[in-house]
Amino acid sequence: MAVKTPIYMDNAATTRVDPRVLDVMLPYFSEIYGNAASRNHQFGWAAEEAVSRARTQAADLIGAGPKEIIWTSGSTESNNLAIKGAARMHEKAPPGSEGRGHIITSAIEHKAVLDPCKRLAKEGFDVTFLSPGSDGIVTVDDIAQAIRDDTILVTIMWANNEIGTINQIPRIGELCHEKGIIFHTDATQWVGKMPTDVTADGIDLLSWSGHKIYGPNGVGALYIRRRKPRVRLVAQIDGGGHERGFRSGTLNVPAIVGFGAACEICQQEMQDEAQRLFVLRRRLEDGVTTALDAVQINGHPDKRLPHVTNISFGYVEGESMMMSISDIACSSGSACTSASLEPSYVLKGLGVGDDMAHSSLRLSLGRFTTEEEVDYTVEKIVHAVKKLRELSPLYDMAMEGIDITKVQWDEH
Amino acid sequence: MAYSEKVIDHYEHPRNVGNFGSTRDVKGRKDIGVGLVGAPECGDVMQLQIKVDHETGTIKDARFKCFGCGSAIASSSLATEWLRGRSLKDGLAIKNTEIVEELSLPPVKIHCSVLAEDAIRSAIDDYRRKNGFAVPDDKRIESN
Fold first, then answer.
1. Which CATH number fits domain A7-13+271-406: 3.10.20.320, 3.10.450.50, 3.40.50.150, 3.90.1150.10?
2. Distance CA B128, CA B34 (A)
3. Does the interface predicted TM-score (ipTM) exceed 0.95?
């Protein structure tokens, strides 16, 4: 059967807006255009009612109350508000500490967590960047060992965006609650794909984004716990006191309506969708690993999101591979595909060698991925790897039994 | 990333892919010069082999293999085309800037052309060393 190209295998980067979501959004661009903060006329009331419905839909997806949801522009803003807002609750050094307090995060977080943490380090907070094991998982033991008397915040992503590995979140949350430390999780890759219950999972602050859950770009949410403990974040954007003072700014009503609708669809379909995507991901991984030697799946073999896979194809460089499979949209950990010309820091953080990081592809499936597309992708990748290995001096050397890690390379 | 048509052509139809024998085989062959430059950790490795006519000092044939991005593959493929039929001296005269120009490489890919120039020099030096010719220590000075 002919497959329609290009094929989208980059759903961890962004997702297509579900047509059902778009339908719900459209009237809010034209007929229902009021400002949700206009309290004195029906245009405003209609907008406010839609925002309030979306807030309930978002809260339901993660087991929270609607008053615990704050609208933002996306996960980057949610993470900034959560991390900086929680840290800046501590104006003075905690007892027994010289600095302003201690923050724990991991070295494989998204930049939207790493960079705010680095900013706080410059402001006098002490930040620990934990390295996960070679399976890519941050464990409760890693956190337990890093906690100090002056630890004020732990921020660990739920699932990793590059390799899909799942950290020990409920247990890390429980530990933080026992110790009275605020716990934030960047759940951008997790929420909407896997079941979430902020109460049972011990979470105080949780970030997620519309465009990863088949909703629109430019809208996100932050869950802020109201009870046991009540988290009184310091606002990072002032002006007008919207969102109960946590985040000022006129609400993006159409996007928020879309976010809510996307959450509701995810909640209804998550279980079946996860199962379907898991089967497709396995089909993809089995397809390439049976056809090719020297292939490595990065991260823990099982404790991963159902729809994300990160594969290193030994002796083949990632960017040249993407050139070969140009009708398949995906990402690579190769330096040549990044603006910084550095290979993926996430793969490096796992101890994957730079050579294997250069050889990696991230393929992420989604709601609209079909079995035919997966089979086509396998076929194209296998063909590309074989072709590029015929060109690869490293593959020849490996076949000759030369250990390429022992060769004296002349580095540039 | 937008590649030039020439890069895509070399990438899709690489010229003179291969070698004149395994790493071990060519080590003892005096008519073959081998250049192996770059490093896997840096994301590009080029292997260039030249077959030289002792009598005339001409490069009769050239083969390459490359682990690297599309521009690296195109640069080394182009190098083999340019080397065939040249004298060793003319081979050494190939400048990375000529490769950049021919392939319209963007600034971030200039290192690929530098690597190709290094591979040429390294292969010619290897041939010279095997045959008892002097090889200047400072390769950069010689190239200028």
1. 3.90.1150.10
2. 11
3. no
